Amino acid sequence: MIRSTQRKLSFPFILGLSILLLYAAYKTWFGSLKTNDRDESVNVAAARSHVLSSKFNIPNVQNSKGFNFFGNSIQSERRRLIKEFCKQTGQTTQRDFDDALRHLAVNLSSKIIYCVTPKCASRQMRQMLFPFRVQGEPGVPKIWQFPKHEEDIMVETYFKLTFVHKFVYPRNRPLLERHGGRILKNFRLNATQRALKELNDITFREFIEYLVTKGSNRSTSVMDWHWDNYVNICGMCSIEYDFIGHYETMEQDLADFITAAGLSAEDARRLAAYRHTPSSTSSSLLKYYSQIPLEWIDILGQIYKANFEMFGYNFPGPLKSLYEN
């Protein structure tokens, strides 16, 4: 009787034990698959980062900031003006953020992001901030070249800066390459075939007429990034910048930036050695803008209203004397 009962109990016991063992084996196998998939995904992202980092001779991204912030009243006021403008205009969109990524250069070793802005000594800034640039390389590393999750980490944790300018007027190269033909066809009567081919004698007045006639306060094909509003170039309302430099006070602002970003001694020496020679003094601006009607200057004031309000510039600023004559 006792043996019979033990035999009857042994079958369900063995069956249950088998089910438990099979379940444990399934969990172990399936779990390892998920882990392997996740590890493979991480490894692919790491490999992409390593390839890009090797190309630019820079270390891999780290989720660490470690900067020394300071109570600079000038910077506090500049950031306040930006926040106030963005709050009033509601100009915060994903498109602004995505567009700005094209202009954000990144130094991974110093954990610095620099929004490149034309006519604000941007060439010299890149030389100082990115000394590791290799001769013959197309340029400095940009945020958009990294995986999305690394973009987010860098934008969130790195020290972000840019420099802005009161009045911007273009030099020849980008103007001639992209807009010269349209300017001559629309605003020069009887433009010669030679002028249309060479595009080397476009005047400042013709360029401004192109802007005030076809320009906009939004990014368009006419509003090339070389003369677009900074809010559109750098995504000022989508990215919270730690430091806003003014071209007009560049040497002092660079000294403040060295302190704010906690730069290494080597980086600090390189930036401290810079001597600023403004290319757009009040006298040169007056020389250019005296060639155009005051009505055009007023239209430019509307097109670039965001720049004036966001960065505390007065309009018409250095052009005030033109209105008094």
Automatic annotation (TrEMBL):
GO cellular component: Golgi membrane
Keyword field: Carbohydrate metabolism, Glycoprotein, Golgi apparatus, Membrane, Signal-anchor, Transferase, Transmembrane, Transmembrane helix
InterPro entries assigned: Carb_sulfotrans_8-10, Sulfotransferase
Main location group: Golgi
Tagged with keyword Transmembrane: yes
GO biological process assignments: carbohydrate biosynthetic process
Subcellular location(s) per record: Golgi apparatus membrane
Alphabetized Pfam families for the sequence: Sulfotransfer_2
Membrane topology: Single-pass type II membrane protein
Catalytic class of the enzyme: transferase
GO MF terms, alphabetically ordered: sulfotransferase activity
EC number: 2.8.2.-
Membership in a protein family: Belongs to the sulfotransferase 2 family.
The protein's name in its UniProt record: Carbohydrate sulfotransferase
Organism field: Desmophyllum pertusum
Lineage: Eukaryota, Metazoa, Cnidaria, Anthozoa, Hexacorallia
Gene: CHST13_2
